[in-house]
Design brief:
about 450 residues; mainly alpha; two-stranded antiparallel ribbon; about 80% helix; about 0% strand; transmembrane; SCL35B1-4/HUT1; transport; Adenosine 3'-phospho 5'-phosphosulfate transporter 1; 3'-phosphoadenosine 5'-phosphosulfate transmembrane transporter activity
């Protein structure tokens, strides 16, 4: 006998109750098992993560990035495992088919339920109207506003990122220490980004949100893992190396696009991808750390950067799929992704004891706390500028601004932290950015040709 049949049988035995009262009275047969299941699994996995963390000395965990990644991933299981089991339970029991969902049931439906098709059409129409409203603004001022906002936000973010992960902190007692916990930086960045996007949603108009919240978990997990790899890689490679790798991430994006979305690419896209690969090889082989201020690119650094590119490529492709399927706004996407990023990293840090240790480091070295706040502020405002630029001017203008920012970031890092680049390495950098601008030019030219062909066929 199903849970629905059982509750209805109890209803028939009590003739004094109407159907709605009866369903509400016996809804406990639905909600108690699910809530107990979630809470039990959460604490069970939390105890497992604590046991694994205690099984290794702290010094050993800090010395090996792969071990730190494994411990953090087990911490993420405190959210992922109960969520997966709850998803299976809801589907197996038909929990969301009820029409009398209480407060707990509505929360479950928000997280796991698919939207009504009529609401999806309403969301699409409201999204298009919002785009039309934005496109009527003054372009020249907005372009300058976006350019300055993106450059300032991410140039300062890059300088602070390298400072936090590579420089020693000194306090008034003349004590010095390096901060080593990359996951805490991911956490504070996501907390402020979630707060910014939440405030933005409250005070601005957006289409109705229809995406089940659990679908944000996939890109949220890869987003925090890619950010973790990005911070961790700075312990093994220079910041210019990292920036150049990020500029070349179109290669794994194309590969992931083939796998996730079955996309097809033009010939010039493959040619420019090969050019970027050649430029990367030229840079890495000749920037070998023999000069002052240059850190050697180790195997660990290469692996971490490869993981970063793979995770980041999946994130962008999965977000693209969600945009096309549910027509949410960019700020809604930002809020949803950062919500789960805060939950995953917060629980993981708490289970490892890093959360309180990092706050203790912050009180011991006040300059670190200020750097963390500015880093998070730049990251959050930078995300808002990204979404505003793409929605107003499109991806081509955004890529041009970002490419210029990456060139400036390399120059700024070399000037501040005295990184020396060999002549061959500089030539490799030039090849990468020439390929990027060539790709932008070909994209725009192909788009114009297709528009002309469309006009001629219509005429």
């Amino acid at each position: 006998m199903s849970r629905t049949d059982f509750s209805m049988k109890l209803c028939r035995k009590n003739n004094s109750l109407n159907l709605r009262q009866c369903r509400n009275r016996y809804s406990i047969f639905w909600e108690v098992p699910l809530s107990l299941l979630i809470v039990t699994l959460f604490f069970l996995w939390y105890l497992i993560s604590r046991f694994v963390e205690k099984a290794f000395p702290e010094a050993v965990i800090q010395d090996y990035w792969l071990l730190r990644l494994c411990v953090s991933s087990i911490g993420y299981g405190c959210i992922l495992i109960p969520g997966f089991v709850a998803y299976k339970y809801v589907n197996a029991t038909g929990y969301l088919d009820r029409t009398d969902l209480g407060c707990f049931g509505r929360i479950v439906k928000l997280c796991l339920g698919e939207p009504d098709p009529d609401l999806m059409k309403t969301a699409e129409s409201s999204t298009s109207s919002l785009v039309q409203t934005r496109s009527s603004s003054k372009k020249a001022f907005q372009l300058l506003y976006c350019f300055v906002g993106l450059q300032v936000s991410y140039l300062v973010w890059g300088v602070l990122q390298e400072k936090i992960m590579t420089q020693e902190y000194r306090n008034s007692s003349d004590e010095t220490a390096n901060f080593r916990d990359s996951e805490f930086l991911v956490f504070v960045n996501r907390v402020l980004a979630f707060a910014f996007s939440g405030i933005h949603l409250i005070f601005t108009r957006h289409p109705r949100h229809n995406c089940p919240l659990y679908k944000y978990i996939y890109c949220s997990l890869t987003n925090i893992l890619s950010s973790w790899c990005q911070y961790e890689a700075l312990k093994f490679v220079t910041f210019p190396t990292q920036v150049l790798v990020k500029a070349s991430k179109i290669i794994p994006v194309m590969i992931m696009g083939k796998v996730v979305s079955k996309k097809k690419f033009e010939y010039y896209e493959y040619v420019t991808a090969v050019m970027m690969s050649i430029g990367m090889v030229m840079f890495l082989l000749n920037n070998n750390g023999s000069d002052k201020g240059v850190k050697e690119t180790t195997i660990s650094g290469v692996v971490l950067l490869a993981m970063y590119m793979s995770m980041d490529s999946f994130t962008s492709n999965w977000q693209s799929e969600l945009f096309s399927a549910y027509s949410m706004s960019s700020v809604q996407m930002m809020c949803g992704v950062n919500l789960f990023s805060c939950l995953l990293t917060g629980v993981s840090l708490f289970s490892q004891g890093i959360l309180f240790r990092s706050f203790e480091f912050m009180t011991k070295f006040p300059s670190f706390g200020m750097d963390c706040f500015l880093l998070s502020l730049c990251s959050a405002t930078g995300q808002l500028f990204i979404f505003h630029t793409i929605s107003t001017f499109g991806p081509v203008v955004f890529v041009i601004i970002t490419t210029l920012r990456q060139v400036l970031a390399i120059l700024l890092s070399c000037f501040i932290y005295q990184h020396h680049l060999s002549t061959f390495a500089v030539f490799g950098v030039a090849v990468v950015f020439i390929a990027i601008f060539l790709r932008i030019y070909c994209n725009q030219r192909l788009r114009n040709i297709r528009k002309q062909q469309l006009r001629s066929t219509q005429g």
